[in-house]
Every structure is written in structure tokens, then in C-alpha cells.
Design brief:
MIC19/MIC25, mainly alpha, single chain, MICOS_subunit_Mic19, two-stranded antiparallel ribbon, 169 residues, mitochondrion inner membrane, lipoprotein, myristate
């Protein structure tokens, strides 16, 4: 990681209090500088006294490489998390779209069913009106025939009664 892959050059200088000022806009906190001045336990070397400029440059480069690697790792994690969120969003949208389409299909089916029932109801209503008109017509005919039979029967009765009355007078 920090062994030699960095192409970025960092120049620095020490001020009178041995604080490090880094040029080109890279800022290091005092704690980072203190850590760089301390002997590294990973290297196994023990330093006594001040650290040489070369050693300090090497440590700064290593720290910068580690920081860059950490930022790259975090950026990669954010990208992966972003991709995961995007996939989840797409999946949710697809699920929602399918649910909406199913609901629309069910609504359309219900609407068609309602229209079919309305047509059937109208057809039954027409049939009932037709039957009603037919039966009213039949009833009127029967009443007319009944009135004619009554009239004929009444006339015949009257005639018969007159004949009997005339005979037995």
C-alpha cells in the first residue's frame, strides 16, 4: 500500500519549534506528526532523538498512502452501498410497478364485470317490460272476452226468462 505506489510529491519544511508545515495544501494534525516522529513498532527500529528528514518524509508518504487507501476504501464502500441502494430502489420500483399493474388489471376486470352485469340487468329489465306489456294486453283481451261472454250470457238469460215468462202467463 504505502511501499512505493505513490506518485504524489509532498514537500515540507520544519519550522523553529520542529512543527511540520506541509506545502501543496496537505495538512497534518499535531497527533499525526507526533506519530510520525515516534519510532515505528512495525519496522522494529528504535530511534533516539530527532527523526531525520528522510525518515520523516518516508513516514509522511506512508501516512498519506494509508490515508488515501482508507479514503479509497471508504469511497468504494460508499459506491457499493450506493449500488446496493440503487438495486433495492429499482427492485422496490419494479415490485411497486407490478403491484400497480395487477391492481389496474383487477380494477379493469371489475369495471368490465360491472358493465356486463349492467347490460344483463338492462336486458332483464327490457324482458320484464316486454312481459308486462304482453300480460297487460292478454289481461285486456280476457277482460274484453269476459265482458262479451257476460253480455251474451245476460242477453240469452233475459231472452230465456222472457220466453219462460211468456209461456207461463
Amino acid at each position: 500500500m504505502g511501499g512505493g505506489g505513490s506518485t504524489r510529491r509532498v514537500t515540507f519544511e520544519a519550522d523553529e519549534n520542529e512543527n511540520i508545515t506541509v506545502v501543496k495544501g496537505v495538512r497534518l494534525s499535531d497527533s499525526v506528526i507526533d506519530r510520525m516522529k515516534e519510532p515505528s513498532s512495525a519496522t522494529g527500529r528504535q530511534h533516539r532523538g530527532p527523526v531525520s528528514d528522510e525518515e520523516l518524509k518516508k513516514r509522511i508518504a506512508e501516512e498519506l498512502a494509508l490515508e488515501r487507501a482508507r479514503r479509497d476504501s471508504e469511497a468504494q464502500k460508499r459506491r457499493l452501498f450506493g449500488k446496493l441502494l440503487e438495486r433495492e430502489r429499482i427492485s422496490s420500483n419494479e415490485h411497486l410497478t407490478r403491484a400497480i399493474l395487477r391492481e389496474r388489471a383487477a380494477t379493469e376486470e371489475e369495471r368490465q364485470k360491472a358493465q356486463r352485469f349492467a347490460r344483463q340487468l338492462e336486458e332483464k329489465d327490457r324482458e320484464l317490460r316486454k312481459h308486462d306489456a304482453y300480460y297487460k294486453e292478454q289481461l285486456a283481451r280476457l277482460e274484453e272476452r269476459s265482458a262479451q261472454f257476460y253480455k251474451v250470457t245476460t242477453e240469452q238469460y233475459q231472452k230465456a226468462a222472457d220466453e219462460v215468462s211468456a209461456r207461463f202467463k
